[in-house]
Amino acid sequence: MKPTIIAIAIAAALFSHAAIAAEAPPLRYDIYVRGAFNGWGTDNQLAYKGKGVYETDILVSPGNHAFKIGSKDWNAEWVANPSASVAVSLGTAYPLALEAGPEDYLFTKQTATFRFRVDVSDPGKPVLSVSRVETPDAKPAVDPHAGAGATASLSFPTWDGKQETARFSVRDPQAPLRSYAHSTTMQLRDPGPQYTTYKEDASLPQVRSGDLAFDALFALAAHEMRLDSVKEIRDGNYNGNNAIPCDCFETGEKWHYVWTRDLSYAADLGLAMLDPQRVRNSLLFKLSGWRDGVTQAPQVAGTKDGLQIAQDTGSGGSWPVSTDRITWAFAAEEVLKSLPPSERAPFAATALKALSNTIENDRIAAFDQATGLYTGEESFLDWRDQSYAAWIPEDLASMASSKALSTNVGHYKALTLAAMLARERKDAARARRYESWARELKRAINARLWLEDAGMYSSLTAAHFDGAPMHKFDWLGQSLAIVTGIADGKRARRILASYPHGPMGAPVIWPQQLDMPVYHNRAMWPFVTAYGLRAAVAGRNVAVADAAYDALMRGAALNLSNMENLEWLSGQPLLLDEAHPKLIGPVINSKRQLWSVGAYIGMVVRNVFGVSATDEGIALDPFVTAKLRGGVFAAANEISLYNLRLQGHALNIKLRLPVVAGKDVNGVYAVERILLNGKPGGAHIKWSELADDNQIEIVLGKLEAGEQAIRRVNADPYVETPAVFGPHEPVIAGLQRDASGNATLRIEAKDTGKLHYNIYRDGKLVASKLPAGAWTDRRASATACYAVEAAFEGSGNRSHHSRPRCLDTGVEIPAADPRVNASVALAGPSPRFDEPHLANWGGPQDRFEVRDVKAPAAGDYAVQVRYHNGANQVNLGISGGVKWLAVKDESGAIVAQGVVQLPHARIEKAHTPLVYSTPLAARLKAGRAYRIEMSDFYNMSYLQSNSSFNAAGGAEGPSNRFDIYGVRLLRVR
Predict the structure, then answer these.
(1) pLDDT value for 912
(2) Which end of the chain, N or C, is more open, meaning fewer C-beta atoms within 10 Å of its C-beta?
């Protein structure tokens, strides 16, 4: 090209850029492509290109990726169809709706660069198109191991008969602090090189085992712990996505905030020992008192400031649909063991105050006196459609009223910790109160959730009007029941022998759910595997422990990181199912996920070397199996953990290993003797016995058999087989009672093949192994409620229960009835969300009452409010309705009272079915006139920590509002 032509070209380009710069962008805010490929963050801002067009290019890995167009603070959220997800085709123009809705999807079977183009020439009618663009040629491959002084590799078989290998190297194997290179042959989840490098940190422990790979993987976990240690955090839902100062742990590469359960399980598994101060800071960040101007309802318990644990945003508008905020106690207990005394005392005082306020209000809002169990969603399994019945997302009050094993174990931990702290502070009355509640809860879990035929605890009960413990199981709940001591030794052994393990490890739920992508469903999560390992160690189950060791090492080695989750049958970070793109997953997956990092650190420190902190000092209980000894430790006579710092004491632990037991020999090595600084010691060492620098030698001796029972299952990960899946839940298509009092229901099947059906009446099994079709109950009462489950012949895997149906049709009183009185106008007779609606009832001073309510017959009734809460989507927010409902007799005496929940509900344009609140149980007499009154309680939007939340209940003030359409009395006994 001639110089004059070059000059003209440069001038033209400069003129073009100047023109764009001079042209005012049509939007007054930045807009982003936010999706599963970037952790729903703001890494991919759409740049203004002029003429109303915004663009960004994103390198996307294989998968079926959910995404939306959104602003930094989510105040702008654009989707192709607010009623249904859209699979985007390349080159097609999609008009975008300027409102919240389900995610759109982009499918690609290979890593490629995609250009997202949004045309806002008409800001009221933006248009999206996606096209593929050429990815620049990759740089020449780099050999990360060139010049290595030592190398090692780990190879693992794949589900389809192949092999994947991770390779490790160091330049100077004798260096006090090594620098590692780490590569893998496995296709990684996210675009990038097939290798990584990391260094050991002088402030953290190091391992020397004689196996470079084992040493490297521990260094990787410590390195990722440091990457997750941040000075500030952020999330698009808070503070306008601007940074919030906090010396905290963020949740992972794609998750830059502090989430209560993620932090708590990570700290409990391993992080609290290594950095108790940062864990403490993070825990304090998850505490909050009342917002300015909040007036407490008289029924609210606790101190005046309201300091309590925050439940993160989530199902139905957060707490108390979800009540696992109490997992905070797992981390708090470990921090209290590891903080020095001068820092422990103030944190202990704060922890007791926050735990007490949380416990007392959870007792009011989420405790079922009839069963002795707490209500609320399963802990961590918070994608409703992944682990609940298909009808539950349409009726989240039914999820709110169910009881989950994992969450109840969390309440048990909170009660026992609060009792201990109360005793420390000489508050004997409070300690006795919480100890009593903990004993009763342990008894209720064992009485209500244990399934003798399965040898495991039910993960969850069915909803109100059913309540039966279902044959659904989760590995976290089972493991926590063991490690907390809720399960006795006999039950622990049965659980460990009964929970299924695939070739790569244990899935987080069992059985799997049909027609659902991989995330919680069909997945293996390292932190859950680590709790399974702790449970196996507690139960001395060698086979289950070896499976966990294998799974944790494999996952970190082949992925170059401690990933969020993996498909459970293949061990892949992404199972690309081209024939079924909606089933691809895990649908999101982050590197250096905090609880996975804590899991790996805990596996090495707490399980292999056996070191854990206690209230008085340290405990030593290494769990070295014959498989570990003959595998990664085969070349060594001893393995060492250096520079573990606890309460100002440096610990250097050396495990002396026996000779290799031989091929195909299983068992765990017993501790023969322990030496502390050259002198005989015991398995428990007090802080006062430790010097500043300590040498601990543990000599392993005899190989003991331990427990060997493990349940193995296998299947093709691309096939939804009855061997590992449960059926869809059936439907009760008809229910009626004849003149003789017999009730006939009709079972409508959703699946074909060899199935049978079980029928529950009022939560009790009354008929089993039935075919689909009609069944008659000749012992029906006029108030019976029924539910049905399906089971596959052969595997016996069962479905969730159907939506329950009751014989009593109830007494409906619509909002327009003259007996209804409210302090503000109520909604009309039926909702249409393509028209304006009120949603204005629910302010702190608002009142609602229904006078002269008469029960047609004496008995036990469920009193429910008919409503709609469209404040946010069913999976988001902090604005679930939480109110106080009371039933009073003619004299004004209270007959029944308590919290009712009115969670977020689906919004559809033309018609949205109304839903009912959780029920208030009331025993009523025939012919008497009663009055129903509803007033305020509180939800998470009342907390100061949510004052910068971007949606309902955030910056504009608390939101506890919904539309009221009436009340219902349903006789249930």
Answers:
(1) 62
(2) N
pLDDT tens, position by position, 180-194: 999 999 999 998 899
Average pLDDT over residues 530-534: 98
Domain boundary (788, 806, 824) is at 806
- DSSP notation for 431-454: HHHHHHHHHHHHHHHHHHTEETTT
CB atoms within 10 A of CB 199: 14
- Whether residues 839 and 799 share a domain: the answer is no
CA distance 841 to 738: 41
Is residue 275 one of the residues assigned to a domain? no
- Which of 106, 133, 160 corresponds to the end of one domain? 133
pLDDT at residue 911 greater than cutoff 60? no
Structure token pair of residue 135: 């990815």
CB 251 within 8 A of CB 593: yes
- The dihedral of CA 376, 380, 382, 387: what is its sign? negative
Per-residue pLDDT at 141:
80
The β-bridge relationship of strands 617-620 and 684-686 is antiparallel
Lowest model confidence (mean pLDDT) among 138-147, 432-441, 700-709, 945-954: 138-147
Tell the burial category of 892 from Cβ atoms under 10 Å away from its Cβ (0-12, 13-18, 19+): exposed
* Residue in the block written with tokens 């304090």: 284
**Domain that includes residue 770, residue range:** 725-806
Residues 6+ apart with CB under 8 A from 579: 718
* C-alpha span between 297 and 937 (Å, rounded): 5
CA distance 867 to 842: 12
DSSP codes, 288-319: E-BPTTPPPPTT--S-TT--EEPPPS-GGGST
- Check: pTM over 0.85? Answer yes or no: yes
pLDDT at residue 46 in the model: 96
Does 829 have pLDDT greater than 80? Answer: no
- Token reading at 513: 């759910």
Share of the chain above pLDDT 70, in %: 96
